[in-house]
């Protein structure tokens, strides 16, 4: 069976992403780390050739925090293909904007908990 989680080819990239998290990612991480929602999340986790912002293996849930770069045509197309790949692995994807996290973190957390 081919390994799809945290393949070594993108290990350095994952480390860099963890070191350089955006402020919205940091804020969300501060609320979901250490099983604060009752489940374990991993940050900047590799699935196939993709690196997701946050992944809960127990619930097969990805949480993405999207900044402005996600809203041009090529990024939308890329994100749709990425989400389709993750969905094909029976992994659900939730997407929130930076603004969602910065202005309504409690609401974001409620949506995440609703899918449990």
Structure commentary:
The protein is an alpha+beta fold. 44% of the residues lie in helices and 22% in strands. It has helices at residues 11-19, 23-32, 73-88, 98-103, 105-114, and strands at 42-47, 50-56, 61-66, 92-97. A 4-stranded mixed sheet has the order 1-2-3-4, with helices on both faces. The protein is globular and about 40 Å long. The protein starts with 10 loop residues before the first helix and ends with a helix.
Structural class: alpha+beta
One letter per element, helices H and strands E, the order comes to HHEEEHEHH
What is the CA-CA span between the terminal residues? 28 Å
Helical run tally:
5
Question: What general outline do the C-alpha atoms trace?
Answer: globular
Keywords:
44% helix; alpha+beta; 4 strands; globular; four-stranded mixed β-sheet; 22% strand; 116 residues
Q: Could you provide a short overview of the structure?
A:
By secondary structure, the protein is α+β, with helices and mostly antiparallel strands. It is about 45% helix and about 20% strand.
């Amino acid at each position: 069976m081919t390994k799809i989680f945290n393949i070594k080819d993108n290990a350095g990239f994952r480390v860099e992403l963890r070191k350089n998290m955006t402020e919205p990612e940091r804020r969300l991480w501060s609320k979901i780390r250490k099983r604060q929602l009752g489940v374990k999340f991993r940050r900047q986790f590799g699935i196939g050739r993709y690196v997701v912002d946050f992944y809960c293996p127990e619930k097969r849930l990805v949480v993405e925090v999207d900044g402005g770069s996600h809203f041009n045509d090529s990024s939308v197309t890329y994100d749709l293909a990425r989400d389709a790949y993750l969905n094909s692995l029976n992994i659900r994807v939730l997407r929130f904007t930076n603004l969602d996290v910065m202005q309504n973190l409690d609401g974001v957390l409620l949506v995440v908990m609703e899918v449990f």
